[in-house]
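Re: that chain you flagged

S.,

Sorry for the slow reply, it's been a week of failed gels. I finally had a moment to sit down with the sequence you sent. For the record, here it is as I used it:
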Amino acid sequence: MESGLLAAPAQPGTARSGESVFPQGRVSRGVIIVLQIALVAVVLAVQPFKSFELDRYFVPKELVLHAAALAAGILLLARGRPTRFDTVDLLLAFFVAWSLASALFATNYWLAQRALGVSVSSALIFWAARRLGADGAYRPIVVAAAVATVCAAVTGLAQAYGIETDYFSVNRAPGGTFGNRNFVAHFCAIGLPSLVYVTVTARRPAGRLTGSLGVGAVAAVLVLSRSRAAWLAVAASAVIVALPLFASRKYWTGHNVGGRVARLGVVAVVGAALAIVLPNRLNWHSDSPYLDSARGMVDYKTGSGRGRLEQYVNSMRMATANPIFGVGPGNWPVRYGRFAPAGDPSIADDGMTANPWPSSDWAALVSERGGVAAIALLGVFAVLFMRALRRWGELGDSDAVLAKVALAGTIVALLVVSAFDAVLLLAPPSILVWSVLGATSGIGPPATATDKPTSRPGWRPAVLAMLLVTVASIARSATQAAAIATVGNGGSRSRWIAAASLDPGSYRINLRVAQLYAGRDRCSTARMYASRARGLFPSAPGARQLLQRCS
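Prediction finished late last night. Pasting the structure tokens below so you have them in one place:
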């Protein structure tokens, strides 16, 4: 049996089917419940304060990720069983360790800690889910991922069809509780293989009906989002997975899987068509917005496509200048301005990058953590993909074979989306990806002779160290969320000052406090906060100009 860093081989008599089982008692049940709650909570977690248009979405979602990783890690340590290591675990552990080393060279340690925390918590989630998968309890995790995907689609549709709330953002509708139409579309595209798997393998008609409605909702929100990366991801996943699905038909013949998949295809087409024809509240600046997006999927000569190419080139210049450890996790926006020429579309009017991450996970990883770390992580996905297509005859039942096909589809969708936008840098898709990959990769035949797991008695100190990083990440996310709540929707000077005490690593809050003091001719205090802001973003013109004004 393939086993993860925290995964021990299944015990004799352990159920190997996809049924919801709890082979290891209360601890396994606790881990499953933690991951199920977290997968749904990460979709719904958001703050209503519009002054922090990005962080009000991602800070609470990061808090969910870190809390789930901490709880799952503690519960798994409580099992106190020997641990084994294989190639996937080694590559992932190497990626985390290299990221930690890279963080030591960062300019902005606050951003480095935040980005590193997402990676560490994601790894813990993966290993927790993988241990459950090795014990046969993979289906509850995949079901939760499917539910989370439908929840994300429903929030996007709710905004598209007229529901107004402070928890939605009007800037990038229909983003729902993600605040951005691209983010909700990416989440749905990555979660779609899990949703299809759960629907196709459902034992009861009610489950198949609910799953079919969910597929229709996902198809509708994907169309309404106009996210070209998500469209490409779904298309690539469907095309590439079609072959292994056909090749595995002898394992599920008699279960009407082919007919169910075909019906889901019809449901998806109907959902997409309804999304196009039904009137909605979206304010597109085109008479044919969906056709325009379809035409622009491969356009890299104009618009956002050209901007992406320029950004990739400049990010590679950054990586070439820092080839070993990069500029540090999360520090791409800190250093990008030094490598961007005048007129770069990635630079906003205030001299900062328009987004705190590049339009590609891999551009971010190579420039922030070095090529070695990016190759290690890519190796994780490559090994998992290849193993998903091997030795189906040893899995024991059709559900397990189809779970492996869903694993392959998830990896394809992830790689396509992450090539065009940030995915693994963000908490919601990270917890979705690593939960599904962990749970489904835990099932499988024994490792090959060249990939034989070996005992690693030092795993417990390593996991304890990662848990300490996760505790620091929880504290950081909690104080960030408190700072956002303290400021609220605008806030007085005293509120901004209190927020700066809660979140001293926020460039925006420190700069705003400096501006408030400078406006009252209290330059000595303004210089203190402006200096703090400049230390976080040395190239940003806002803090530098204020310091010159108060000098």
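What I noticed first: The longest helix spans residues 459-487.

Talk soon,
D.
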